Amino acid sequence: MHPDNPQRRSITSAVDSIRSGALIAYPTDSCYALGCQLGSRDGINRIRTIRDLDERHHFTLVCQNFAQLGQFVHLDNDVFRTIKATTPGRYTFILPATREVPRQLLHPKKKTVGVRIPDHTVTQALLAELGEPLLSSTLLLPDEDEPLTQGWDIKERLDHVVDIVLDSGDCGTEPTTVIDFSSGEAEVVRHGAGDTTRFE
């Protein structure tokens, strides 16, 4: 798939599959990710199995824009301005979830969820066609230090557990920077591809 001008037919086909319950591997502005439809319990379980995740893991709602993000998390004015200044970009923000977020996605104690707005043409095209956030997690396999970066390699290794691999070339190995706003103050919980200067 062309990284700057993705084929409309391929995007539409991928979104139709997502709506039918498919689990996809797709590129972002930081690294490849696993994604499924927001309410897909099967998709969540498959991601947990592939990545060997426990219930405390924060899934990410990958959103097309700020208006969409605002439906799923609570933001005060200060946090709104800070996040607005850094999106779209290579950040994931942990925030208190609204009732729109399926319960199985919430951190069991904090009732929070991760959200992000990526700066990647293919991801944005997917989200525009889908019309809702994509439930996602970094494509980092258990006992490996770096995410998978090549579409052919992902297909070769995960063809039996994912339904679609969208290959638009190498998109890097560094996952997003994760900023936790659940206490009201910014806390950098993972240093990644996004600059942390404004949060420290």
UniProtKB/TrEMBL annotation:
SUPFAM superfamilies linked to this entry: YrdC/RibB
Protein name: Threonylcarbamoyl-AMP synthase
Alphabetized Pfam families for the sequence: Sua5_yciO_yrdC
Organism: Streptomyces anatolicus
Domain YrdC-like stretches: 8-194
